[in-house]
Write a structure and sequence with these properties.
Number of helices: 9
Structural class: alpha+beta
Strand order of the largest sheet: 2-1-3-4
Order of helices and strands: EHEHEEHHHHHHH
Strand content: 5-15%
Helix content: 40-55%
Radius of gyration: 17 Å
Shape: globular
Oligomer: single chain
Distance between the termini: 32 Å
Largest sheet: 4 strands, mixed
Length: about 210
Amino acid sequence: MTTLYTMPGTCSLSPNIAVAWLDAPVDVHAMAYGDHKNDDYLAINPKGKVPAGKFDDGDVLTEASAILAWLGATHGSDGYGRNSKLGRQEAEALSYMTSEVHATYGGHFGTANFAETDDGQAEVKKKTYAKLADQYRYMDGILKENGGEWYLGKRSFADTFLYVLSRWIEQTPLSIDDYPSLKQHRANMESDDGVQLALQRQNMDPIG
């Protein structure tokens, strides 16, 4: 992979952090918000979403979890992979975060896709935030059980996506204060040199 396409405020921050942690030879290209709908980018990723990774041969890899898996397999340390206990746990955690929690955010970011009337959209949001509250409670519990520093007890790419989710909560009526382990994890991540580099490359600021 030669180029990772990112955009502020999106889950592309997750593989961006992974690239920084691995010091992988990948160029991180931060697009301005909205450029994912431009023809130049749609020619790369017709889905019109980030992240996307483009290779020298023209091949393109999309979806954060797939890009993270490729980064780990290609640039991870010896012994890294889905055959290790940590690798298997990471795959499970990322699957939950990307296919469950991220999907739930559809009711927040794209409420109009689920209901047309104001009352209908209000009901969608109500159910969305109730479901997110349960999901954040679950992840807060996992983090606490594993010592509170890293989601799986050791640093993994699950922490990169968890950080994204802990940022997104600020856009909802939910409060990070109700999830103390997640709040501390977010603070720890923002003191990490790789996370700081990724934020800078993506024109984003720490939550603080």
